Amino acid sequence: QQVARCLTQRGLTLSVAESCTGGLLSARITDVAGASKFYKGGACTYCNEIKQKILGVRAETLETYTAVSQQTAAEMAQGIARVYETDLGVGITGYAGPDGGEDGTPVGTIYIGLFWKGSTQVRKIVSPHGRSQARQDAADEALCMILHAIKE
After folding, report:
1. CB proximity list for 55: less than 8 A, separation 6 or greater
2. What pLDDT digit, counting tens, does each position of 35-59 carry?
3. 3-class secondary structure, 43
4. Who contacts 60 (Cβ-Cβ below 8 Å, separation ≥6)?
């Protein structure tokens, strides 16, 4: 509700691109009455092909850094803001479980990108307490990042 209030008061718009959270962040945003004033929509981009086609994540990024990386989260955030023409864009990608990455990245590793005012920040979290908790933690962190950014 704080995020909704701040975005609405400032006349800002938001869109989200989700992978491992599978739409959870979008659901939490739209659970708030009046979300249509600031929320333009989201995309659940679970596979690399869709990350590329819809969001414009570069094949080179996915090949070099993998889908679960700070680089991919940043490109997802930038891509969704561009496609939906919003002030802020969020990109979430990670290994919610039960397995981690083939490169040894542990289960629960999640990257959250936030595009705002022409720049992108990415935060990494590790939530090793199971798939459901990892998804919740990622959505919580994304909301905190949005709130912190727009309050500055």
Report:
1. 17, 43, 45, 75, 76, 79, 80, 83, 91
2. 999 999 999 999 999 999 999 999 9
3. strand
4. none
